[in-house]
Sequence to fold (313 residues):
Amino acid sequence: MNMSRSARDCERTTFKRQHLSLLDLKEMELQHGYLYKNTIPAYPESVEFCVQKVSHVTGESGLRAIFLDSGFRQPPDLVDNDQPHFLWWSFVVTPDDISSAEERFLTSLFPHRSSAQIYNQPRVLEHFTNSKAFQEKSSYGNFCFTFSLKELLWHYSKQFCGDQSPVLRVYETLLFKKEIQYTVVVHPRHVNLYDDFTRLPSQGDGVCGFREGVMWWRCQAPSDIHNKRLEVNSFDGRIDVRPHHKEEYYVWDHVCLAFHMEPGWVLNVDRNRLFKRVNACEVSQPCLLRPPETPLSLNEAECVLADLKAEMG
Fold:
């Protein structure tokens, strides 16, 4: 365990080589206010999402650099500062992913539901998946590149791994004031910097894993603001969602992929494909753009993207 301040200038606790569940963290008796709140209403816990898409978000200068390079590299200022050589990607949880997760969640609670019970069950997860892990907005910029994980791993394998599959490992758990980040490191087999980090499991009861091109993630805290409560009616085989008498703030969790990048490496992607994979998005608070970047409105970002496409022909 290590206490430090991050690039976003806030305190964090780092647990290297581990993905610690919410229960694991609570049992450690840390000095952390939100983690131990006992007023959080009942909500869906340990819901398994199967995620097939990932995104990389950047500001306007990052956008232009990506198209200039026809690909992704670590920002030069981070290389110069001897920071870890990572290219960061986040999970994209789609509405279909949420629907599939809800079906698994309900089936795990009521494995023998009748057709009528299934038909009459109101939607559940849409009331609780309100953290930044499920939003189209981002704290990291106005321009979001979205790829299927399979495609991204294929590009990385062809360019840096000698056509071998890259290795995915449990890298760390970061605990912030209101956020738990699980980091997975992705690296070529010939890079031995991470040999003492456990390989990401393909099955089991861990926080996340990788199987056949799909990441699974057992989300333990899908909401940062709780204003609903879950009511399980075992007799009727049904779940209801009720209003909670007040809003409660809590930690939320998510997963990031950190692709190992050597200085000078560029993960090349054809420009036409880049244009198909990028869209404008709004910047959410807190804004974590590195100066001198500043957030744009959605309309401004869309205009920048349209102008760039015109410039690039």
